[in-house]
TrEMBL record:
GO MF terms held by the record: SNARE binding; zinc ion binding
Matches recorded under PANTHER family: SEC24-RELATED PROTEIN, TYPE A VON WILLEBRAND FACTOR DOMAIN-CONTAINING PROTEIN
Family annotation (InterPro entries): Sec23/24_trunk_dom (IPR006896), SEC23_SEC24_subfamily (IPR050550), vWFA_dom_sf (IPR036465)
Organism: Rotaria magnacalcarata
A Pfam family per the record: Sec23_trunk
GO cellular component: a single term: endoplasmic reticulum exit site
UniProt-recorded name of the protein: Sec23/Sec24 trunk domain-containing protein
Length: 261
């Protein structure tokens, strides 16, 4: 999520000074250059702007809907509706245990999410505080999110990733490792397909739609994780950084007419 794209125009993001200071530290104190009405925008910043814009739209069009944020790298962090004092962080061996992930999710289900009209400001603050880094614990994040979302039929999970799932359950790292034997790669690919097929079936049974958004030019074995969208009535979308906001909007605007039919 740290890769950048040069785009036309200037962007004044919330918390931009804090983000620039973080970036400067990573490059020996040198701030990113902005010139001639052009700006380098990172993938994470693109996601932040898209989420922010769509939270605004939800507040206007569907203020009673609920929204929650969950991030994943070498650990998964659940911010809920943004109003909690401290996020829930799950790391280590728990990322390899479906039992542990479901147990943590069950505890969180007791905390009722508030309508987005009440939580938008806090959610936006949490989103703009996010930083890049670590692996991609996509599988554990979906297991956790699905157990939260399944308490309300018709819920939607939107996964945004620019990397290969390589941490915890559902890791596909071996499936693309050219240094290992082909038989090992094929077995890892088969196990990955089985894992995400299982999540797909569970989401379909619970009436939850899963959509996957990934960024052009990244490798994430989309045919494997994309089956979750294909099997639950969601979307699989490969986006340019500049149209990410609209892609988010199109997913959220789709109305659920019925489930389990």
């Amino acid at each position: 999520m740290s890769s950048t794209t040069l785009v036309q125009g200037t962007f004044n993001l919330p918390h931009i000074l804090k983000q620039q200071e973080r970036a400067a530290e990573a490059f020996g104190g040198a701030h990113m250059i902005r010139q001639h009405n052009q700006t380098y925008v990172s993938r994470l910043q693109g996601v932040q702007m898209a989420v922010d814009a769509n939270l605004d739209k939800l507040v206007k069009d569907a203020p009673t809907r609920r929204a929650a944020v969950l991030t994943f790298n070498h650990e998964i962090t659940y911010y809920g509706d943004g109003t909690r004092d401290e996020p829930l962080v799950i790391r280590g061996d728990k990322l390899n245990s479906e039992t542990d992930l479901l147990h943590e999710a069950e505890k969180e289900v007791k905390n009722e999410l508030k309508p987005v009209a009440q939580t938008k400001t806090k959610l936006t603050e949490r989103v703009y505080d996010l930083e890049e880094g670590g692996q991609t614990a996509l599988g554990p994040a979906v297991v956790f999110a699905l157990n939260i979302a399944s308490k309300r039929q018709g819920s939607k999970i939107v996964i945004c990733t620019d990397g290969l799932a390589n941490g915890g359950l559902g890791s596909l790292e071996l499936a693309q490792d050219t240094k290992v034997d082909e038989a090992v790669r094929n077995r890892a690919l088969e196990e990955g397909n089985q894992f995400y097929a299982g999540l797909t079936e569970r989401a379909r049974d619970k009436g939850v739609g899963i959509s996957v958004i990934t960024i052009k030019g990244t490798a994430c074995l989309l045919p494997v994780i994309g089956q979750m969208a294909d099997g639950t009535g969601g979307n699989v979308t490969i986006v340019d950084l500049l149209n990410m906001r609209d892609e988010f909007a199109s997913i959220l605007e789709q109305k659920i007419i019925a489930t389990n039919v």
